[in-house]
Amino acid sequence: MDGKVIIVTGALGALGSVVVDEALARGARIASVDHAPTQAPATADLFELGGVDLTDAAVAKKAIDAAAAHFGKLDALINVAGGFAFETVADGDPKTWQRMYALNVMTALNASRAAIPHLTASGAGRIVNVGAMGALQAGAGMGAYAASKAGVHRLTEALAAELKGKITVNAVLPSIIDTAANRASMPKADFAKWVTPQELAEVILFLASDAASAVTGALLPVNGRV
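Request: output the structure for the sequence above.
Response:
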């Protein structure tokens, strides 16, 4: 990935930060985009954009354009930004469904739409989204989250068809990711069976690489050892 310019959204989170570190280690130049504030100075290989609300299309376009302008091009967009909620349909708040749709679908949609012209100009553009295994068959309490991630899956497929021959568009579908937050919420689980952020980052960066030029429209499960 030497010399590739990659935007990672949700870059300060548990998964996004690992994706950024792994991509930098492989020689990529990274634009790190997150809703959380950042004041880190730009370096030759890392440009951080904090306080970015990707649910706002205009804000997303401004951030993507700034990142592409900073490095002079854009080769890949990795949409990690998103959110999670657990509540039953009967007892939950309808606003949760709107929030999950905004955080998971609209962030990916807005960033992707803004990135398309830059990725097309690259000649080897890549979009990688983060879906969810739990969206293939929703369990109790997973309605709002699963519905929104299913939207990410359909967005991936639609974009792959629309951009075929110009930009590849794929998604990873992780099971439970081994993060501190997930361990805290499920303390009795067998963490050894979960997929690690490092393992997931490996798959994401493969899909963002030249080696994955023949793969598009894929929804790739990453199950860990479940």
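The chain has a mean pLDDT of 96.
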